[in-house]
Specification:
The complex is a heterodimer of chains A (328) and B (294). Chain A contains eleven helices and twelve strands. Chain A has 328 residues and is an alpha/beta fold. Chain A has a single domain, classed as P-loop containing nucleotide triphosphate hydrolases (Rossmann fold), CATH 3.40.50.300. In chain A, the strands form two sheets. Chain A has an eight-stranded mixed sheet with strand order 6-7-8-3-9-10-12-11, with helices on both faces. Chain A has a four-stranded antiparallel sheet with strand order 2-1-4-5, with helices on one face. In chain A, a hairpin with a 2-residue loop joins strand 9 and strand 10. The longest helix of chain A is centred in the middle third of the chain and has 18 residues. Chain B has one domain: MetI-like (MetI-like fold), CATH 1.10.3720.10. Chain B is built from twelve helices and no strands. The interface between A and B is medium-sized, with 40 and 26 residues.
């Protein structure tokens, strides 16, 4: 059973210039006790996806189709705001990108960590003990006195670890991590990722890890979902997808990864062109305008082709070019 | 804020912070001076009954227009009432109006500001329109209009003060709320399932309240001036209840012959407004984090 099974999810924002189709037919699974990475460039709909799952879409956004199945039974798209609110926190919790802003600056860390347990009917001492326990788990030195301190007295990495501790305090079934390491430097990034992996194993939750750092995804995740312009263009086990990318976008993305450059260069490679205007989506492949392998077959809606078990790509050439393209 | 009290570590951290700020206040000569004046007025108001044996409202026609003497420290007015006693009891009225109406204005201002800042856009626009409309009324005109409806009374004074103060407080709270509601810790709280009341009460309000309290403490002299002004015009406290404004009015007619009556009414107003202004400004500086460590 999957912790989260999203199928055919569509999200539309109504704007002054007409409807904006932000997510189109998004389908993927977050299996139990697995870490799924979501990767894609800015504006590809990663944040919209999170908000749609959490029921926190902006007022002008609606889920126009599809379902989000949580723990195999509840379709979150049918939940009332009240039901969603009860789910957020204890069952699904979130860590955000900016550790500086994630904590309330005027309240002490202890106060916030105790506050966040407001649903539990334990005594204040028990809650404080639980907070200290969590802080120790995320390796905050001197956890006991850390409760008295205010957010500005911690470094960015520590704040992010505190945010992780707060998110995992209720032992949720699903942790959504929205680029939690982007604002941290490289060393901290590695430690934070190891910590996250460690905690995930301890608590036994599933993780949805959003990032645009391919190295981090490869390091941390079991599965990867590649998004482009609000569509899932490719998904599958990390190793499989990174070694045999079957969608041209994934291939280009991997080519552009600075870590994969073999030669010294002054100008890092980029993918020319821009994401299409989501108010006027192309009828066919959404990546066609920037694709090097474009042909007539790209002007019709693309099928999801399964190239290997659990590995699918939304490209009509998927099965054919996959293996040759791997070495590029 | 009950949590702070029962949460020892956070409480000590917070109170030591407060204590440091207060110590800084005591190092500022102007703040110390203001504090002294304010304490003097408060002391006089609280212990009015012990400081003088005269009844502030007892009329004694034989003792009219007596100058200051050992028996009547500030002399008597046109009805033979002891002015010192009237000044002390007038202080009670002034402080009562200042504290109660400021507290009420703060409470209403915070609630309205939070609603305007966090609520839907149309409500925000409507409330801003209302605030601006209220602000655009001249205070005296507003007071006259209200007194015409309600009749002159202490309540009328307080309603005027609340109406004058609320729009300003609400606007500040609204602006702060809008700035804070998009910050990540609010999104984080939402994603953790916090309700709207919880977000407003636990996360936004503590961020808003500090600067607002300082501002309110600087508004107290204005409130005292409004009370005195309305009583001077006969729109406030009804006679025979003593008020600094009405004492000033009593002495106004004979200011050449018996100046001590007008002085008895005017000096306390000056002392109190100066005291609260000095104190408020020093408090603002002392709690300004940019001036820390000075």
């Amino acid at each position: 059973m999957s912790t989260l099974a999203i199928s055919g999810l569509n999200v539309v924002f109504s704007t002054e210039d007409g409807p904006l189709h932000a997510l189109k037919d998004v389908t993927f699974d977050v299996p139990e006790r697995r870490i799924v990475g979501i990767v894609g460039e800015s504006g590809c709909g990663k944040s919209t996806l999170i908000n749609a799952i959490l029921g926190l879409l902006a007022d002008n956004g609606t889920i126009s189709g599809g379902e989000v199945l949580f723990e195999g039974r509840d379709d979150l798209t049918q939940f009332t705001p009240r039901q969603m609110r009860d789910l957020r926190g204890p069952r699904i919790s979130t860590v955000f990108q900016d550790p500086m802003g994630a904590l309330n600056p005027v309240l002490s860390v202890g106060r916030q960590m105790i506050n966040i347990q407001y649903r539990s009917d334990q005594s204040k001492e028990q809650k404080a003990a639980r907070a200290i326990e969590m802080l120790k788990l995320v390796r905050i030195p001197d956890a006991d006195s850390a409760l008295e301190r205010y957010p500005h007295q911690f470094s960015g990495g520590m704040k992010q670890r505190i945010a992780i501790a707060m998110a995992l305090m209720m032992e949720p079934a699903l942790l959504i991590a929205d680029e939690p390491t982007t604002a941290l430097d490289a060393t901290l990034e590695v430690t934070t990722i190891e910590l996250l992996k460690d905690l995930q194993e301890k608590i036994g939750c599933s993780v949805m890890f959003i990032s645009h750092h391919l190295g981090v995804i490869a390091e941390l995740c079991d599965d990867v979902v590649v998004m482009y312009a609000g569509e899932v263009v490719e998904r599958g086990p990390v190793r499989e997808v990174f070694q045999h990318p079957s969608h041209p976008y994934t291939r280009r993305l991997l080519e552009c990864d600075p870590a994969r450059q073999t030669e010294r260069t002054r100008i890092l490679p980029t993918i020319p062109g821009e994401i299409p205007d989501l108010r006027a989506r192309p009828r066919g492949c959404v990546f066609a305008a920037r694709c090097l392998d474009r042909h007539e077959g790209c002007d019709t809606p693309q099928p999801d082709i399964v190239v290997a078990p659990g590995h699918a790509a939304r490209c009509n050439l998927a099965g054919q070019t996959a293996r040759e393209g791997a070495g590029a | 804020m009950s949590e702070a009290a029962s949460n020892p570590p956070a409480a000590t951290a917070r109170s030591s912070e407060l204590w440091r700020s207060l110590r800084r206040l005591l190092r500022e000569p102007l703040g110390l001076f203001g504090l002294g004046l304010v304490l003097l007025v408060i002391f006089g108001a609280i212990f009015a009954d012990f400081l003088t044996q005269w009844d502030p409202t007892r009329i004694n026609p034989r003792d009219r227009f007596l100058g200051p003497s050992g028996e009547h420290l500030m002399g008597t007015d046109q009805l033979g009432r002891d002015l010192f006693s009237r000044v002390l009891h007038g202080g009670r009225i002034a402080l009562y109006v200042a504290l109660v109406s400021t507290a009420v204005s703060l409470a209403i201002g915070i609630v309205l500001g939070l609603i305007a800042g966090y609520g839907p856009r149309w409500l925000d626009n409507l409330m801003i329109l209302l605030f601006d409309a209220m602000k655009s009324f001249p205070t005296v005109m507003l007071a006259l209009a209200l007194v015409t409806i309600m009749g002159p009374s202490l309540t009328a004074v307080m309603v005027v003060v609340v109406l004058v103060n609320v729009p300003g407080y609400a606007r500040i709270v609204r602006t702060q709320t809008i700035a804070i509601k998009s910050s990540e810790f609010v999104t984080a709280a939402q994603s953790m399932g916090a309700s709207t009341t919880r977000i407003l009460g636990v996360h936004i309000m503590p961020n808003v309240i500090g600067p607002l309290v300082i501002l309110a403490s600087m508004d107290i002299p204005v409130v005292i001036a409004i009370e005195a002004g309305m009583s001077f015009l006969g729109l406030g406290v009804r006679p025979p209840t003593p008020s600094w404004g009405s004492i000033l009015n009593d002495g106004f007619a004979q200011i050449r012959e018996t100046p001590w009556i007008a002085i008895a009414g005017g000096v306390p107003i000056i002392i109190t407004t100066l005291g609260f202004t000095f104190l408020g400004e020093t408090l603002r500086d002392v709690f300004d984090p940019r001036l820390k460590g000075r």
